[in-house]
Amino acid sequence: MLRVLTLSTLYPDRVRPGFGSFVARQTQALAGQPEVEVRVVAPLGLPIPSLRRSLHRQLAELPLIETFDGLSVARPRFSTWPGPAGRGNGRRMAKVLVPFLASLRGGFPFDVIDAEFFWPDGVAAVVLGAHFGVPVSIKARGSDINHWATVPAVRRRILAAARAADGLLAVSDALAERMAAIGIDRERVTVHHTGVDSTLFHPVDRAAARAALELRSPLFVTIGTLNANKGQAIAIDALAAVPDATLILVGDGPDREKLAARAAERGLAERVRLTGQIAPAELAPLIAAADAVVQPSANEGLANVWVEALASGTPVIATAAGGIAEVLDRPAAGRIVARDPESVAAAMRAILANPPAQAAVQAAAARFSWDGNGAALAAHLERLVAQRH
Q1: Are 181 and 215 in a shared domain?
Q2: Which of 5, 117, 241, 357 is the most exposed place for a label (fewest CB within 10 A)?
Q3: pTM for this entry
Q4: Domain contains 351
């Protein structure tokens, strides 16, 4: 029996149902492998009470331990600080988790720690692995390397964690190369592609799906945190050159009000909708109803939404970020475009003029599955345990 402690600050909860849903799905796939038992520790980083906003107060009310989507999930709290003080988040997380895991270990003697993000999860994980004498795997997903590693103090901690870890994973070849560029040994990095739930994300009658959602064609969807990196402003500006089309922005983030104002300024308020975060079960019919998913990101690892769109028979319009070329490997899958409104709008019009067959789009996602993802992760973690012993 392989006992895995999954450590992830990216994990959904009742307050944020879509937050880190890809980590939850991967963890469920891992737990479904033969002779594997999993416990999830999803630490909540909260500022001191005087600095907490509404979201922080809601998170503080979550139970310490609960069964969430069929898995035991613990949510111990640790203190976070904004700005440069945040570089100590890994240390603060580890300090809180040592006694917490010591108690957990009495009933669940975990064999390996599976950290699902480099910062601060991976930095804390190597401290915990040394303390409890178990191997550690760290997975890079995108912003941990593309954003956090640009902060010098954080980059030093990420590089130290990479050297100390027993195994390293990356969601794409492109991200593995980026890891090498900042000083991580590329030969130690294994690419571990995401999966997709084909029972949830699959082609449907697009017209009927739009009618059920009270939407009309043309329809485009952009999914992710509302911030400059994800490029929703570019998608809004592109919409101005696609007559009668509707753009739905799924997600929440610091630019929500700014994006709503931008749509109004462009005279697009009636054609741009912001849904906030939604659960995968609500997201799936929306993706299937869309003519294309538009993702003009500056940086990515390998976005799950790319694969979910393809599995739904919906082509993707994306910029050359992260592992997009590993996903859009055929013309039917979509288009990789320059990161400007004109290029995005041209791709939107081209897909409307000549939409690819849903079956041809779906075929591009055939190599991605959660069962394959879970089996590969279990094999990786088993190797680390065997090597340690």
Answers
A1: no
A2: 357
A3: 0.87
A4: yes
